[in-house]
Amino acid sequence: MDSNTLSQLFNATLSQDQSIRTKVELTLKEYEIQDNFMNAVLTVICSENIDLGTRHAASIYFKNRIRRGWDTEKDAISENDKAFIKQNIIEALSKVPPVIRTQLTSSINIIICNDFPEKWPQLIPNLTALLSSNEYQHNYIGVLVLNEIVRIYQFKKDESEPLAQIVEHLYPLTLKIAQNAANTDTLEAAEIIKLIFKIYSASIQCDFFPCLQSEAYLVPWGTVFLQVVEKDIPDSVLPETKEEREKYPWWKAKKWAYKCLNRIFSRYGSPNSLKEYRQFAEGFTQNFAPIILKSYLKQTELLVNGRFMSSWVLHLIGDFYTECVKPKVTWQILKPQVEALTKYFIFPLMCFNNEEQELWEDDPVEYVRKRFDPMDDFKSPVASAAAFLVTLVKDRRSRTFMPILEFINNTIEANKQPQDMNSAFQKDGALAMIGILSDLTLRKNSPVKDQMGNFLLNLFDDFNSQFPFLRVRICELITKFENLELTDDQSKLALQGVMNCMQSDELPVKISASLALSSLLQYESIQAEIGPHIGVIMQELLKLLNEIDMDTLTPLMNKMVELFADQLAPYATQLCEQLKDTLLRMVTEANNENANEDDAGNKIMASMGILRTISTVVLAMEASPDILAQLEVTLYPVIHYILEKEIIDLYDDIFEIIDGFTYCQKRVSNVIWNAYGLIYNTFMNDAIDYIREMFPCLDNYVSFGSDVFKANKDYQNKMFEIIKTVMESDALDTTERIYGCQLMETMMLNCKGVIDEYIPEFITIVHKNIEDPEELPSGFLITCYEVIINAIYYNPLLTLSFLEHINYTSTFFTKWFASLDKFKRVHDKKLCIVALLTLLEMPFENVPKTLQDGWGQIMFALINLFQTYPKAVEERKKLEEDEENYEDAYEKLLNGDDGDEEYVEVEGDENVIDGDGEDYLQLLAAAAANEFGAFDSFEELEEELYFQTPLDDIDIYIKFQDIIQFISQNQLQSYGLLTQSLNPEQQAFLNHVMEIANHNRIQQTQTPANPQ
């Protein structure tokens, strides 16, 4: 196809007429499998005499075609075209404008992912030639492609050889380019330096190659980094607005110079570095870090003298100072500068400023988002300065704590009753600093711990400040000092101030006051004060939520629902009606195809928070079935909309609400049954990855809705289709397939005598999954075995008949009995016992010969299970206690409650070696184990404390006694085979089991059932 015809086709793809676009797309689809077609497309892209819009459309098609057809057999790009593209695409980069270059660069990335290095050996020689050239354009294109290679390999530590080769052979060339560019002032030089430093930074994210650690590399690279850091960018050449200055190419280049130096020091070059880099760290800390620190201090001095510094660079300097507090060598340089850095670097960043005031006045909602969204702190100078401040006080306490507190106190006193904006700014900065240090002031051996209550009380006048931002700050301090034990009088004064602020006309003040109220709710006296007004407060919070469309307030709403469930009960339906309206508005706006991406993201996050509040309301109303019935009707439109519109981000929360309704009522209403088909469609369409989140409500449909489920064949078929998909889909692994096994178990335990037709299907599914048991994780294997064990319990005759049909009876029982030690949970043992007892109830003549031959093994298995059952019960109780203790400890940690933790400070100026975070990491590990351990470790299944089945009501000791007595009287052959090989010790143990059964019978007649 000639380029003229092809360009006309791509031009037609820009038509406003959908029918024309559709016709052209079909035409392109026909042509794309032809040899040399992609060559022609690339020619169009590079043709300067063709309209830019057409070329851009062609470049997008080119990228998408490569993504679809480069590494696939279906609709594959021909080998001739692939060869042509690899020979010409890099040169093409120099012939196109930036907007098209972006598409070609993405195409190169795809090709590199699939072909480099084996199928594209000429790529490195091509790059070498480009990077060795004296032409800027050649250098820039070479660097651009090199960036794509490094991006692909930067996190592949186990496949690092190609990157190691590139670092060794190509980095010297990029270094020379950077050195030359650093000596010029052009914007082009800044662009290529930025890209080279970005490449360097990417290559040291996970590893620091030995060649880069050598002085031959480290010194020249470090020198050029510092040269760019120190490069003078006169304010006179910068754009006028701060926003444009932030984007200025040389400040972007500086950012990446700082990032490279920071990364080397923080990950590889400090005393806290990974063990494998300790030797490098010793040399770097002694010889290089001091030079970098002195350079950063000079830059900070320029900032103090009024020179512009980008926000990113400010942040990175703060990060580096934080790292320099710990090593002795850098601390000794930093120590004399602490007072100046506190006053001129940290403090100004803490102060409210004109820029924030302008945003507050112009767009208070956006101000609230920036102020209260934790993600907005990410990589901000304020967050960096705060971390530096905390590290100074925490790790070098004797030198910094009291002087810094003195500075804060003096600043507050000097601006106690601010009359002008500048004075108010100063006070705000000091209050921000004390808030940041709040936890440290309250530790056990803090010299000011006992004074903090009165200190805070003396600031309460700011609740009525003429400056709204100071009202925000005092409310924030109530939150920061929530671990400070206020007296009843102090807490009531704080509540009065907070409630006054909630009545403010200023949105940020009302939001901060709401968050402060959350902290005050820990006091019973405060709960008593606001309890009668909880309905009004919740209405105010809902109004605020509708104004900001953020999830900032939903944790407070959740807390209030939990604390005031009884008082809120009369308002629950009205509250959920309003939450529903707010939620549907937000998700509808977020789901609009024209929605701003950031705004839509905020609305979805806020929707998640609302759904969690709704879930909390549902759980809080567990004892009020009438209210729950009303809430189901009220909230069903939310369930329907989210599932029908396939709003994936909200699936987790919506499934939790359905689970809450069914679990709290122990029944499934007609309203919630209406959602069953939606859940099925959702799963089949796009939610297979959400089986873990979906499982509890699916399980409840069968467990608590068994009467309806058993009577409805369509419901059964839908559940079976879900199970079959889970067990057979390549998109899921054994982690998720456990849920399929559990759904089969739920059906068999709750639908006895109704689902016979599915039993062979269930056995067939798990039989396919366990054909090679040695390769399977233990946890998954056991759940597969339990499907067949459940089938035996469901209908032993039907199950044994099918096992015989597939010639699996003897094999299964052999594997089952050999694996009994892996059935460790209470449920596992109980299931095995009732299944084996069900077998014993069968007429012996109906037992297959393959099983009759080993009949006595059943009694040995039962003895094993009864012997280990008490330990399983004991472990379960211990787990329940551990979970309570874990939740308390985890909550304390997340709340920053260090209790009586003392300062631990190194002597003198010695290195500070990090020990912080160990408790946190251990608790995170515990959290992971609690939440995912049963299914993710796979070494063994863990107890599921809230898992309920019909087996819970069975006393296995009484059942054993009843069945043994029955067969001893009615099935003598069976009884004889079971008992003939028992030794005296085993016989004595069985007598012990009988004694427990007798004891339990007596207990049942005296107290409510408490099955074993």
From TrEMBL:
* SMART domains the record matches: IBN_N
User: What GO terms describe the biological role, i.e. biological process, of this protein?
Assistant: protein import into nucleus
Question: What's in the keyword line of the UniProt record?
Answer: Coiled coil, Cytoplasm, Nucleus, Protein transport, Transport
Residues annotated as domain Importin N-terminal: 24-95
Q: Name one GO molecular function term.
A: small GTPase binding
UniProt key word Nucleotide-binding: no
Q: Which residues form a coiled coil?
A: 869-896
Cellular component aspect of the GO annotation: cytosol; nuclear envelope
Homology family: Belongs to the importin beta family.
UniProt name for this protein? ARM repeat-containing protein
Task: Please name the source species.
Answer: Anaeromyces robustus
Show the taxonomic lineage. Eukaryota, Fungi, Fungi incertae sedis, Chytridiomycota, Chytridiomycota incertae sedis
